Amino acid sequence: MAKVLLLADHNGDSLNVSTTRALRCAAALGEVDVAVFGSGAGKAAEAAAALQGANRVLHVDRPENASPLAALIAPQLAALAADYDVLLAPSSTFGKDVLPRAAALLGAPQISDIMEIVDERTFKRPIYAGNVITTVRVPAECKIVATVRIASFTAVEAAATPAPVETIATDASLPDHTQWISLQASGGDRPDLQSATRVVAGGRGLGSEESFAMIFQLADSLGAAVGASRAAVDAGYVPNDMQVGQTGKIIAPDLYIAIGISGAIQHMTGIKDAGVIVAINKDGDAPIFEAADIGLVGDLFQIVPEFEKALGSG
Amino acid sequence: MKVLVGIKRVIDYNVRVQINREGTDVIKEGVKMSINPFDEIAVEAALRMKEAGQATEVVVVSIGPGAAQQQLRTALAMGADRATLLETDDEVQPLAAARALMNLVEKEQPGLVLLGKQAIDDDANQVGQMMAALWDKPQATFVSGLELDGGRIRAVREVDAGLETVEITLPAVVTVDLRLNEPRFVKMPDIMKAKRKPLETIAFSELGIEMPPRLESLGCEPPPSRSGGVKVDSVDALVATLKDKGVL
Ligand SMILES: Cc1cc2nc3c(=O)[nH]c(=O)nc-3n(C[C@H](O)[C@H](O)[C@H](O)COP(=O)(O)OP(=O)(O)OC[C@H]3O[C@@H](n4cnc5c(N)ncnc54)[C@H](O)[C@@H]3O)c2cc1C
Ligand SMILES: Nc1ncnc2c1ncn2[C@@H]1O[C@H](COP(=O)(O)O)[C@@H](O)[C@H]1O
Question: For a tag site, which of A164, B9, B42, B97 has the least CB within 10 Å?
Answer without folding.
Answer: A164
